[in-house]
Specification:
By secondary structure, the chain is an alpha/beta fold. Helix content is 40%, strand content 16%. The protein is built from ten helices and 13 strands. It has helices at 13-20, 25-33, 48-62, 77-85, 98-103, 124-141, 177-196, 215-224, 241-250, 272-283, and strands at 38-41, 68-72, 89-92, 109-112, 146-152, 200-205, 208-209, 229-230, 235-236, 239-240, 260-264, 270-271, 289-290. The strands form four sheets. Strands 3-2-1-4-5-6-11 form a seven-stranded parallel beta sheet, with helices on both faces. Helix 6 (124-141) links the parallel strand 4 (109-112) and strand 5. It starts with 12 loop residues before the first helix and ends with a strand.
């Protein structure tokens, strides 16, 4: 769907989900090229449900019969029911239970979405277990599969805005506990994949947005509730979740050995100040700023 085809308004969450999971022709071609089932580990996160639905819809459009399997603890049972209704086969359990991981069905195509990001400071040991120990288990369990593993742009250090952003060959010297654990995640995936020559893509995503979460949502909430916006960190990149889903699915056909790291973001660098001013104009509100870029 081209940007000119987008609706002027979205009536409800079902319409929103349909929009986020609508496959592009390129995604359909990619799902036509690969063989076998697709399993999504950590499907109940922010991106997993719409990504699973897009995989299902793209496979059907390609005329390919395959299982789309979603794995999660499903702390919200209604989500599991919704996914099943949409034709996604589900398995409920804790991926950090190695016996549960071993019990999951084989699949030639693996999307490893499970990461620990929010709350990293409150529980750093869980951050490292989820971001390092689990990827090692996943790469070993699915050593014969194509694997697309989620990473983040936080693996890079801060760079000047004028540089346009870090590229894939930029040294990984990150800031903070979560970012360092994610570099470790990448390294352990690379090590395991090189041992078994497993085809792998590392998706360095920053940052998916849609109407219910993300940088734009957070700015809009500050404006709505008359909270000042700090512009000390004055610039950001983001990508609409549907575009991210599309490109992540297409990564299954790009997996290779040695592993391929790919940045996934809009090429545009957005100003926090200008974006907030534009949102405030849409919302007929005023916006307050603190700090300096």
């Amino acid at each position: 769907m081209a940007s000119t085809d987008l609706p002027d308004a979205i009536r409800d969450e079902r319409e929103h989900e349909d929009l986020l999971s609508e496959p592009t022709p390129a995604a359909v071609r990619s799902l036509e090229q690969i063989e076998g089932d697709v399993i999504l580990l950590g499907v109940a996160g922010k991106m997993g449900p719409s990504l699973a639905r897009m995989a299902k819809r793209a496979s059907e459009a390609a005329g390919v019969q395959r299982r789309i399997i979603g794995v999660s603890r499903f702390s919200t049972p209604a989500l599991e029911t919704q996914l099943q209704h949409d034709g996604i086969e589900t398995f409920r359990g804790d991926l950090l239970d190695e016996s549960f991981l071993a019990s999951l069905p084989d699949a030639p195509n693996v999307m490893h979405l499970a990461v620990q990001k929010f709350g990293s400071q409150a529980n750093p040991s869980m951050t490292w277990a989820t971001n390092v120990l689990l990827p090692a288990w996943v790469c070993r369990r699915y050593s014969a599969s194509r694997i697309v593993s989620f990473s983040t742009g936080n693996v890079y250090p801060l760079v000047p805005v004028s540089s346009g952003g870090a590229r894939e060959d930029h040294p990984l010297t990150p800031l903070g506990e979560y970012a360092n654990a994610t570099v470790a995640r990448e390294r352990i995936c690379e090590w395991q994949a090189e041992k078994t020559r497993s085809p792998l893509v590392l998706v360095r995503l920053y940052y998916a947005v849609e109407l219910r979460y993300g940088v734009l949502h957070d700015l809009a909430q500050h404006i709505r509730h008359d909270r000042p916006i700090d512009v000390s960190h004055g610039y950001f990149k983001c990508i609409w979740q549907r575009d991210a889903n599309d490109m992540i699915l297409r990564c299954l056909a790009l997996t290779q050995s040695p592993p391929l790291p790919l940045n996934l973001a809009s090429p545009d660098i957005l100003s926090v100040r200008q974006t907030a001013e534009q949102l405030a104009n849409f919302m007929n509100k005023t916006v307050q700023f603190i700090g300096q870029e």
